[in-house]
Amino acid sequence: METKEKKAFDLNSFSLIACETIQVIIKIFIDLFFVSKIYSCGASASTKIMYIALFYIIQFVLTGIPFLFSGHLLVRINKSIYVSIGAILLTATVLLVYIFGLGGESDLLTYTPLIAVIYGLGYTFFSAGHGALQGEVVNSEKLIKFSALKKIIGQVVTVLFPVSFGLIIDNLSFSYLSIIMIVLCAVMIVFSFLIKPKKKLDTDFSFKKYSKFVKEHKEAKKPLILAYISDFFRGASYDSIIVLMVLFTIRAYGSNTSLGLLTSIFTLCSIVLLLFYLKFYRKRRATIFVVPVIVLVSVSAIVLCITTSQVTVAIFYAVFTIFNVVLISISDARRRGGIARALSMYGQILEVNALCEVSLLLGRIMTLSIILLCGILNSEILLYVALEFACLMYVCFGISIIFLEKTLDDEGILILKNNLKKNREENEV
Protein backbone atom coordinates (compact mmCIF):
# COMPACT_ATOMS: atom_id res chain seq x y z
CA MET A 1 0.00 0.00 0.00
CA GLU A 2 2.81 2.40 0.88
CA THR A 3 4.52 1.70 -2.44
CA LYS A 4 1.38 2.62 -4.35
CA GLU A 5 1.10 5.83 -2.39
CA LYS A 6 4.64 6.79 -3.36
CA LYS A 7 3.98 6.00 -7.00
CA ALA A 8 0.85 8.13 -6.95
CA PHE A 9 2.37 11.18 -5.26
CA ASP A 10 6.06 11.35 -6.11
CA LEU A 11 8.05 14.27 -7.55
CA ASN A 12 6.36 13.79 -10.93
CA SER A 13 2.88 14.03 -9.40
CA PHE A 14 3.92 17.00 -7.28
CA SER A 15 5.33 18.78 -10.34
CA LEU A 16 2.11 18.11 -12.27
CA ILE A 17 0.08 19.65 -9.44
CA ALA A 18 2.50 22.61 -9.15
CA CYS A 19 2.26 23.33 -12.88
CA GLU A 20 -1.53 23.10 -12.87
CA THR A 21 -1.75 25.31 -9.77
CA ILE A 22 0.24 28.06 -11.46
CA GLN A 23 -1.84 27.57 -14.60
CA VAL A 24 -4.92 28.17 -12.42
CA ILE A 25 -3.34 31.41 -11.18
CA ILE A 26 -2.72 32.47 -14.78
CA LYS A 27 -6.35 31.67 -15.58
CA ILE A 28 -7.47 33.85 -12.64
CA PHE A 29 -5.28 36.65 -13.96
CA ILE A 30 -6.71 36.35 -17.47
CA ASP A 31 -10.37 35.55 -16.71
CA LEU A 32 -10.82 38.12 -13.96
CA PHE A 33 -8.32 40.91 -14.27
CA PHE A 34 -7.32 40.94 -17.93
CA VAL A 35 -11.02 40.89 -18.83
CA SER A 36 -11.60 43.59 -16.21
CA LYS A 37 -8.76 45.62 -17.78
CA ILE A 38 -10.43 45.35 -21.20
CA TYR A 39 -13.78 46.41 -19.74
CA SER A 40 -12.21 49.44 -18.04
CA CYS A 41 -11.04 50.80 -21.41
CA GLY A 42 -12.65 53.99 -22.68
CA ALA A 43 -14.44 52.32 -25.62
CA SER A 44 -18.22 51.79 -25.70
CA ALA A 45 -19.69 48.95 -23.63
CA SER A 46 -20.73 47.04 -26.76
CA THR A 47 -17.21 47.27 -28.21
CA LYS A 48 -15.66 45.99 -24.99
CA ILE A 49 -18.10 43.08 -24.78
CA MET A 50 -17.38 42.24 -28.42
CA TYR A 51 -13.62 42.13 -27.80
CA ILE A 52 -14.07 40.01 -24.67
CA ALA A 53 -16.28 37.50 -26.51
CA LEU A 54 -13.85 37.47 -29.44
CA PHE A 55 -10.96 36.82 -27.07
CA TYR A 56 -12.63 33.73 -25.67
CA ILE A 57 -13.85 32.40 -29.02
CA ILE A 58 -10.33 32.62 -30.51
CA GLN A 59 -8.81 31.08 -27.39
CA PHE A 60 -11.27 28.19 -27.27
CA VAL A 61 -11.00 27.43 -31.00
CA LEU A 62 -7.22 27.17 -30.63
CA THR A 63 -7.71 25.07 -27.53
CA GLY A 64 -10.13 22.57 -29.07
CA ILE A 65 -9.28 22.06 -32.75
CA PRO A 66 -5.57 21.07 -32.31
CA PHE A 67 -6.64 18.07 -30.22
CA LEU A 68 -7.86 16.42 -33.43
CA PHE A 69 -4.28 16.00 -34.65
CA SER A 70 -1.99 16.72 -31.67
CA GLY A 71 -2.28 13.08 -30.61
CA HIS A 72 0.01 12.12 -33.50
CA LEU A 73 2.77 14.14 -31.83
CA LEU A 74 1.92 13.03 -28.30
CA VAL A 75 2.60 9.39 -29.14
CA ARG A 76 5.99 10.29 -30.64
CA ILE A 77 7.52 12.86 -28.29
CA ASN A 78 7.96 13.21 -24.55
CA LYS A 79 4.69 14.64 -23.23
CA SER A 80 6.55 16.75 -20.66
CA ILE A 81 7.95 18.74 -23.62
CA TYR A 82 4.35 19.61 -24.49
CA VAL A 83 3.82 20.92 -20.95
CA SER A 84 7.05 22.95 -21.14
CA ILE A 85 6.10 24.51 -24.49
CA GLY A 86 2.69 25.36 -23.04
CA ALA A 87 4.29 26.92 -19.96
CA ILE A 88 6.54 29.08 -22.17
CA LEU A 89 3.61 30.25 -24.32
CA LEU A 90 1.51 31.04 -21.24
CA THR A 91 4.45 33.09 -19.97
CA ALA A 92 4.55 34.88 -23.33
CA THR A 93 0.83 35.65 -22.92
CA VAL A 94 1.37 37.36 -19.58
CA LEU A 95 4.38 39.21 -21.02
CA LEU A 96 2.28 40.49 -23.95
CA VAL A 97 -0.47 41.61 -21.58
CA TYR A 98 2.17 43.56 -19.64
CA ILE A 99 3.74 45.14 -22.77
CA PHE A 100 0.45 46.10 -24.46
CA GLY A 101 -0.95 47.28 -21.14
CA LEU A 102 1.91 49.77 -20.93
CA GLY A 103 1.06 50.92 -24.46
CA GLY A 104 -2.36 52.18 -23.44
CA GLU A 105 -6.00 51.18 -23.84
CA SER A 106 -6.05 51.33 -27.64
CA ASP A 107 -3.04 48.98 -27.90
CA LEU A 108 -4.62 46.55 -25.45
CA LEU A 109 -7.85 46.33 -27.46
CA THR A 110 -6.03 46.17 -30.80
CA TYR A 111 -3.82 43.29 -29.73
CA THR A 112 -6.44 41.36 -27.74
CA PRO A 113 -6.92 38.84 -30.63
CA LEU A 114 -3.13 38.24 -30.73
CA ILE A 115 -3.06 37.66 -26.98
CA ALA A 116 -5.96 35.22 -27.43
CA VAL A 117 -3.99 33.29 -30.07
CA ILE A 118 -0.88 32.93 -27.88
CA TYR A 119 -2.95 32.07 -24.81
CA GLY A 120 -5.04 29.52 -26.73
CA LEU A 121 -1.96 27.80 -28.14
CA GLY A 122 -0.24 27.86 -24.75
CA TYR A 123 -3.24 26.34 -23.02
CA THR A 124 -3.52 23.72 -25.79
CA PHE A 125 0.07 22.54 -25.42
CA PHE A 126 -0.12 22.62 -21.64
CA SER A 127 -3.49 20.87 -21.38
CA ALA A 128 -2.70 18.20 -23.98
CA GLY A 129 0.60 17.27 -22.35
CA HIS A 130 -0.68 17.57 -18.80
CA GLY A 131 -3.78 15.48 -19.45
CA ALA A 132 -1.82 12.73 -21.19
CA LEU A 133 0.89 12.72 -18.50
CA GLN A 134 -1.66 12.05 -15.75
CA GLY A 135 -2.19 8.59 -17.21
CA GLU A 136 1.54 7.89 -17.12
CA VAL A 137 2.35 9.48 -13.76
CA VAL A 138 -0.72 8.90 -11.57
CA ASN A 139 -1.74 5.47 -10.34
CA SER A 140 -5.28 4.85 -11.67
CA GLU A 141 -6.39 3.67 -8.20
CA LYS A 142 -5.39 7.08 -6.82
CA LEU A 143 -6.96 9.14 -9.61
CA ILE A 144 -9.96 10.35 -7.62
CA LYS A 145 -7.75 11.40 -4.68
CA PHE A 146 -5.27 13.02 -7.05
CA SER A 147 -8.08 14.96 -8.80
CA ALA A 148 -9.57 15.98 -5.45
CA LEU A 149 -6.19 17.14 -4.15
CA LYS A 150 -5.68 19.23 -7.28
CA LYS A 151 -9.16 20.67 -6.86
CA ILE A 152 -8.60 21.57 -3.21
CA ILE A 153 -5.27 23.26 -3.96
CA GLY A 154 -6.91 25.02 -6.90
CA GLN A 155 -9.73 26.24 -4.66
CA VAL A 156 -7.26 27.50 -2.02
CA VAL A 157 -5.40 29.38 -4.75
CA THR A 158 -8.70 30.77 -6.00
CA VAL A 159 -9.39 32.04 -2.48
CA LEU A 160 -6.05 33.74 -1.91
CA PHE A 161 -5.18 35.22 -5.27
CA PRO A 162 -8.29 37.07 -6.56
CA VAL A 163 -8.53 39.43 -3.59
CA SER A 164 -4.73 39.83 -3.50
CA PHE A 165 -4.63 40.61 -7.21
CA GLY A 166 -7.51 43.08 -6.88
CA LEU A 167 -5.76 44.94 -4.06
CA ILE A 168 -2.49 45.04 -6.02
CA ILE A 169 -4.20 46.52 -9.10
CA ASP A 170 -6.24 49.12 -7.17
CA ASN A 171 -3.41 50.16 -4.82
CA LEU A 172 -0.36 49.70 -7.03
CA SER A 173 -0.92 48.99 -10.73
CA PHE A 174 -1.89 46.37 -13.31
CA SER A 175 1.72 46.43 -14.58
CA TYR A 176 3.03 45.57 -11.11
CA LEU A 177 0.73 42.54 -11.00
CA SER A 178 1.86 41.49 -14.49
CA ILE A 179 5.50 41.40 -13.33
CA ILE A 180 4.54 39.14 -10.39
CA MET A 181 2.74 36.87 -12.85
CA ILE A 182 5.82 36.65 -15.10
CA VAL A 183 7.87 35.43 -12.11
CA LEU A 184 5.26 32.77 -11.31
CA CYS A 185 5.28 31.67 -14.95
CA ALA A 186 9.05 31.19 -14.77
CA VAL A 187 8.54 28.90 -11.76
CA MET A 188 6.00 26.88 -13.77
CA ILE A 189 8.52 26.42 -16.59
CA VAL A 190 11.05 25.02 -14.08
CA PHE A 191 8.51 22.54 -12.67
CA SER A 192 7.52 21.45 -16.19
CA PHE A 193 11.06 20.22 -16.81
CA LEU A 194 10.98 18.15 -13.60
CA ILE A 195 8.21 15.87 -14.89
CA LYS A 196 9.80 12.61 -16.03
CA PRO A 197 7.24 9.79 -16.37
CA LYS A 198 8.43 6.41 -15.12
CA LYS A 199 6.09 4.41 -17.33
CA LYS A 200 4.79 4.83 -20.83
CA LEU A 201 1.30 3.72 -21.77
CA ASP A 202 0.95 1.68 -24.93
CA THR A 203 -1.07 4.29 -26.79
CA ASP A 204 -1.70 5.06 -30.41
CA PHE A 205 -3.66 7.82 -32.11
CA SER A 206 -6.04 6.64 -34.79
CA PHE A 207 -9.73 7.50 -34.99
CA LYS A 208 -10.16 4.54 -37.33
CA LYS A 209 -8.83 2.14 -34.69
CA TYR A 210 -10.82 3.95 -32.01
CA SER A 211 -14.04 3.54 -34.01
CA LYS A 212 -13.28 -0.15 -34.55
CA PHE A 213 -12.61 -0.60 -30.81
CA VAL A 214 -15.97 0.96 -29.84
CA LYS A 215 -17.82 -1.23 -32.37
CA GLU A 216 -16.17 -4.33 -30.91
CA HIS A 217 -16.86 -3.27 -27.30
CA LYS A 218 -20.43 -1.96 -27.44
CA GLU A 219 -20.65 -1.57 -23.66
CA ALA A 220 -18.29 1.41 -23.94
CA LYS A 221 -20.42 3.28 -26.48
CA LYS A 222 -23.09 4.64 -24.13
CA PRO A 223 -20.79 6.08 -21.41
CA LEU A 224 -18.50 7.58 -24.07
CA ILE A 225 -21.40 9.31 -25.85
CA LEU A 226 -22.70 10.59 -22.51
CA ALA A 227 -19.21 11.89 -21.67
CA TYR A 228 -19.09 13.82 -24.97
CA ILE A 229 -22.63 15.17 -24.46
CA SER A 230 -21.72 16.20 -20.92
CA ASP A 231 -18.65 18.06 -22.20
CA PHE A 232 -20.77 19.83 -24.83
CA PHE A 233 -23.18 21.10 -22.16
CA ARG A 234 -20.26 21.98 -19.89
CA GLY A 235 -18.75 24.11 -22.65
CA ALA A 236 -22.10 25.77 -23.40
CA SER A 237 -22.64 26.68 -19.74
CA TYR A 238 -19.68 26.80 -17.36
CA ASP A 239 -17.18 28.91 -19.34
CA SER A 240 -19.78 31.40 -20.57
CA ILE A 241 -21.25 31.81 -17.09
CA ILE A 242 -17.75 32.65 -15.80
CA VAL A 243 -17.41 35.37 -18.47
CA LEU A 244 -20.91 36.73 -17.76
CA MET A 245 -20.30 36.74 -13.99
CA VAL A 246 -17.21 38.88 -14.45
CA LEU A 247 -19.11 41.29 -16.73
CA PHE A 248 -22.08 41.63 -14.36
CA THR A 249 -19.80 42.03 -11.32
CA ILE A 250 -17.64 44.73 -12.94
CA ARG A 251 -20.77 46.58 -14.07
CA ALA A 252 -22.35 46.34 -10.60
CA TYR A 253 -19.33 47.06 -8.38
CA GLY A 254 -16.81 48.79 -10.64
CA SER A 255 -13.59 47.81 -8.83
CA ASN A 256 -11.01 45.04 -9.05
CA THR A 257 -10.90 44.71 -5.27
CA SER A 258 -14.64 43.99 -5.13
CA LEU A 259 -14.33 41.47 -7.96
CA GLY A 260 -11.44 39.72 -6.24
CA LEU A 261 -13.03 39.85 -2.78
CA LEU A 262 -16.29 38.27 -3.94
CA THR A 263 -14.40 35.53 -5.77
CA SER A 264 -12.22 34.79 -2.75
CA ILE A 265 -15.06 34.71 -0.20
CA PHE A 266 -17.33 32.48 -2.26
CA THR A 267 -14.51 30.15 -3.25
CA LEU A 268 -13.61 29.72 0.42
CA CYS A 269 -17.16 28.53 1.04
CA SER A 270 -16.89 26.15 -1.91
CA ILE A 271 -13.90 24.40 -0.29
CA VAL A 272 -16.15 23.28 2.58
CA LEU A 273 -18.59 21.80 0.07
CA LEU A 274 -15.70 20.20 -1.84
CA LEU A 275 -14.53 18.41 1.33
CA PHE A 276 -18.09 17.20 1.92
CA TYR A 277 -18.22 15.94 -1.69
CA LEU A 278 -14.91 14.14 -1.31
CA LYS A 279 -16.07 12.34 1.82
CA PHE A 280 -19.59 11.33 0.84
CA TYR A 281 -19.86 11.25 -2.97
CA ARG A 282 -20.49 7.94 -4.71
CA LYS A 283 -21.77 7.31 -8.24
CA ARG A 284 -25.10 6.06 -6.90
CA ARG A 285 -25.58 9.40 -5.08
CA ALA A 286 -25.11 11.57 -8.18
CA THR A 287 -28.75 12.72 -8.29
CA ILE A 288 -28.71 13.84 -4.65
CA PHE A 289 -25.57 15.90 -5.24
CA VAL A 290 -26.38 17.34 -8.68
CA VAL A 291 -30.09 18.29 -8.58
CA PRO A 292 -29.85 20.88 -5.74
CA VAL A 293 -26.96 22.57 -7.57
CA ILE A 294 -28.72 23.02 -10.92
CA VAL A 295 -31.92 24.17 -9.18
CA LEU A 296 -30.14 26.81 -7.07
CA VAL A 297 -28.07 28.13 -10.00
CA SER A 298 -31.16 28.37 -12.25
CA VAL A 299 -33.28 30.17 -9.65
CA SER A 300 -30.53 32.69 -8.82
CA ALA A 301 -30.01 33.39 -12.56
CA ILE A 302 -33.75 34.04 -13.04
CA VAL A 303 -33.74 36.44 -10.08
CA LEU A 304 -30.71 38.26 -11.54
CA CYS A 305 -32.47 38.69 -14.88
CA ILE A 306 -35.66 39.99 -13.22
CA THR A 307 -33.84 42.56 -11.12
CA THR A 308 -30.15 43.36 -11.58
CA SER A 309 -28.49 44.95 -8.55
CA GLN A 310 -25.39 44.52 -6.44
CA VAL A 311 -27.34 42.14 -4.18
CA THR A 312 -28.68 39.87 -6.94
CA VAL A 313 -25.29 39.85 -8.70
CA ALA A 314 -23.63 38.82 -5.43
CA ILE A 315 -26.26 36.12 -4.81
CA PHE A 316 -25.80 34.58 -8.26
CA TYR A 317 -22.01 34.82 -7.96
CA ALA A 318 -22.17 33.13 -4.54
CA VAL A 319 -24.52 30.33 -5.58
CA PHE A 320 -22.61 29.48 -8.76
CA THR A 321 -19.11 29.72 -7.27
CA ILE A 322 -19.95 27.71 -4.14
CA PHE A 323 -22.13 24.94 -5.56
CA ASN A 324 -20.63 24.58 -9.03
CA VAL A 325 -17.63 22.85 -7.47
CA VAL A 326 -19.73 19.66 -7.20
CA LEU A 327 -20.52 19.39 -10.91
CA ILE A 328 -17.04 20.39 -12.02
CA SER A 329 -15.39 17.91 -9.64
CA ILE A 330 -17.48 15.02 -10.99
CA SER A 331 -16.93 16.20 -14.57
CA ASP A 332 -13.17 16.58 -14.11
CA ALA A 333 -12.91 13.02 -12.81
CA ARG A 334 -14.96 11.56 -15.69
CA ARG A 335 -14.04 13.58 -18.76
CA ARG A 336 -11.08 13.10 -21.11
CA GLY A 337 -8.61 10.54 -19.74
CA GLY A 338 -10.84 10.00 -16.69
CA ILE A 339 -13.63 8.31 -18.65
CA ALA A 340 -11.09 6.30 -20.66
CA ARG A 341 -9.47 5.00 -17.49
CA ALA A 342 -12.87 4.34 -15.88
CA LEU A 343 -13.59 2.06 -18.85
CA SER A 344 -10.04 0.59 -18.85
CA MET A 345 -9.53 2.05 -22.36
CA TYR A 346 -5.89 2.97 -21.73
CA GLY A 347 -4.94 2.58 -25.38
CA GLN A 348 -7.62 5.05 -26.52
CA ILE A 349 -6.96 7.91 -24.08
CA LEU A 350 -5.73 10.36 -26.74
CA GLU A 351 -8.73 9.83 -29.04
CA VAL A 352 -11.14 10.19 -26.12
CA ASN A 353 -9.32 13.38 -25.04
CA ALA A 354 -9.61 14.83 -28.54
CA LEU A 355 -13.34 14.14 -28.89
CA CYS A 356 -14.02 15.54 -25.40
CA GLU A 357 -12.19 18.76 -26.28
CA VAL A 358 -14.04 19.17 -29.59
CA SER A 359 -17.38 18.61 -27.81
CA LEU A 360 -16.38 21.22 -25.24
CA LEU A 361 -15.40 23.64 -28.02
CA LEU A 362 -18.73 23.33 -29.86
CA GLY A 363 -20.62 24.12 -26.67
CA ARG A 364 -18.40 27.08 -25.85
CA ILE A 365 -18.76 28.65 -29.29
CA MET A 366 -22.54 28.29 -29.25
CA THR A 367 -23.08 30.37 -26.08
CA LEU A 368 -20.17 32.77 -26.61
CA SER A 369 -21.61 33.61 -30.04
CA ILE A 370 -24.66 35.08 -28.27
CA ILE A 371 -22.35 37.26 -26.14
CA LEU A 372 -20.47 38.29 -29.30
CA LEU A 373 -23.77 39.26 -30.95
CA CYS A 374 -24.58 41.30 -27.86
CA GLY A 375 -21.49 43.41 -28.56
CA ILE A 376 -21.95 43.58 -32.33
CA LEU A 377 -25.65 44.53 -32.13
CA ASN A 378 -25.20 46.65 -28.99
CA SER A 379 -28.10 44.78 -27.37
CA GLU A 380 -28.40 44.72 -23.59
CA ILE A 381 -31.20 42.14 -23.81
CA LEU A 382 -28.89 39.62 -25.51
CA LEU A 383 -26.63 39.70 -22.45
CA TYR A 384 -29.53 38.38 -20.35
CA VAL A 385 -30.52 35.94 -23.09
CA ALA A 386 -26.96 34.59 -23.01
CA LEU A 387 -27.14 34.17 -19.22
CA GLU A 388 -30.46 32.31 -19.30
CA PHE A 389 -29.35 30.13 -22.20
CA ALA A 390 -26.10 29.29 -20.41
CA CYS A 391 -28.07 28.33 -17.29
CA LEU A 392 -30.39 26.12 -19.36
CA MET A 393 -27.29 24.39 -20.72
CA TYR A 394 -26.04 24.11 -17.13
CA VAL A 395 -29.18 22.17 -16.19
CA CYS A 396 -28.54 19.86 -19.15
CA PHE A 397 -24.92 19.54 -17.98
CA GLY A 398 -26.09 18.34 -14.56
CA ILE A 399 -28.62 15.89 -15.99
CA SER A 400 -26.02 14.42 -18.38
CA ILE A 401 -23.65 13.87 -15.42
CA ILE A 402 -26.38 11.95 -13.56
CA PHE A 403 -26.96 9.66 -16.54
CA LEU A 404 -23.22 9.19 -17.04
CA GLU A 405 -22.66 8.19 -13.41
CA LYS A 406 -25.55 5.71 -13.52
CA THR A 407 -24.17 4.20 -16.72
CA LEU A 408 -20.76 3.66 -15.12
CA ASP A 409 -22.50 1.60 -12.44
CA ASP A 410 -24.02 -0.78 -15.00
CA GLU A 411 -23.02 -4.43 -14.90
CA GLY A 412 -21.97 -4.26 -18.55
CA ILE A 413 -19.21 -1.79 -17.70
CA LEU A 414 -17.75 -4.17 -15.13
CA ILE A 415 -17.78 -6.97 -17.73
CA LEU A 416 -16.06 -4.65 -20.23
CA LYS A 417 -13.33 -3.70 -17.77
CA ASN A 418 -12.71 -7.32 -16.80
CA ASN A 419 -12.49 -8.39 -20.45
CA LEU A 420 -10.07 -5.59 -21.32
CA LYS A 421 -7.95 -6.35 -18.29
CA LYS A 422 -7.86 -10.02 -19.27
CA ASN A 423 -6.86 -9.10 -22.83
CA ARG A 424 -4.00 -6.89 -21.60
CA GLU A 425 -2.72 -9.62 -19.29
CA GLU A 426 -2.80 -12.17 -22.13
CA ASN A 427 -0.92 -9.78 -24.44
CA GLU A 428 1.73 -9.18 -21.77
CA VAL A 429 2.23 -12.93 -21.43
Briefly say what this structure is:
Helices cover 85% and strands 0% of the residues. With 429 residues, it is mainly α.
List the helices and strands and how they pair.
Elements: H1 2-8, H2 11-39, H3 45-64, H4 67-74, H5 79-103, H6 105-110, H7 112-137, H8 143-171, H9 174-192, H10 207-216, H11 221-253, H12 256-280, H13 286-306, H14 310-334, H15 337-342, H16 349-377, H17 380-408, H18 411-428
Shape: globular
- Our Rg estimate from Cα atoms comes to 21 Å
User: How does the major sheet shape up?
Assistant: none
* Count of extended strands: 0
Instruction: State the secondary-structure class.
Output: mainly alpha
**SSE string, helix = H, strand = E?**
HHHHHHHHHHHHHHHHHH
The helix content, as a percent range, equals: over 70%
Mean pLDDT: 83
Residue stretches low in confidence (pLDDT < 50, at least 5 long) are 1-8
By DSSP (H or I, 4+ residues per run), the number of helices equals: 18
Fraction in beta strands = under 5%
Report how far the terminal alpha carbons are from each other. Answer: 25 Å
Structure characterization notes:
It is built from 18 helices and no strands. The chain has helices at residues 2-8, 11-39, 45-64, 67-74, 79-103, 105-110, 112-137, 143-171, 174-192, 207-216, 221-253, 256-280, 286-306, 310-334, 337-342, 349-377, 380-408, 411-428. It is globular, with a radius of gyration of 21 Å. Mean pLDDT is 83; it is low at 1-8. The chain starts with a helix and ends with a helix. It has 429 residues and is an all-alpha fold. Helices cover 85% and strands 0% of the residues.
